[in-house]
Amino acid sequence: MAKKKAPAGTPAIAALTSARAEFTVHAYEHDPAHSSYGEEAAQAMGVSPDRVFKTLVADVDGVLTVAVVPVSGSLDLKALAAAVSGKRAAMADPALAERTTGYVLGGISPLGQRKRLRTVVDESASGHATICISAGRRGLEVELPPATLTTLTDASLAPIARH
Q1: What is the pTM of this model?
Q2: Cross-strand bridge partners of residue 23
Q3: Could you read off the pLDDT tens digit of each residue along the chain, which spans 163 residues?
């Protein structure tokens, strides 16, 4: 995995570049008719869906929290709440998620968000040498070691996905 020069325009790639992290950028043509952003990314890149992770924003006891889970699974809201010592979790209002992160749905990255949010990454990420996450725009992904993601987002690892 070679370090790539950052394409202009995404705070996620700027954050990786600034941190001198090793990452690979993958771009593909986004199809607005596709039913799942994450599955579309996995197919377009030819990567197993268990290595492509989606970024979801949830409300845990009134605190916006980022959950990063494989596209091959789904977020377990109870597990997310437990992972951050919360009682109740629900998906955040989409407009609030976009305003808070500075990204649009389908392009929300856990990196380079407008407001840094508490982040939990599903523990399955640690079973891969690299994972792919949104680079901050539909049709743009970054591949990086899971440890890089958890370090740069100050994330915790927890079993928050249903597989």
Answers
A1: 0.92
A2: none
A3: 544 444 456 999 999 999 999 999 999 988 888 888 888 898 999 999 999 999 999 999 999 999 999 999 999 999 999 999 999 999 999 999 999 999 999 899 999 999 999 999 999 999 999 999 999 999 999 999 999 999 999 999 999 999 8
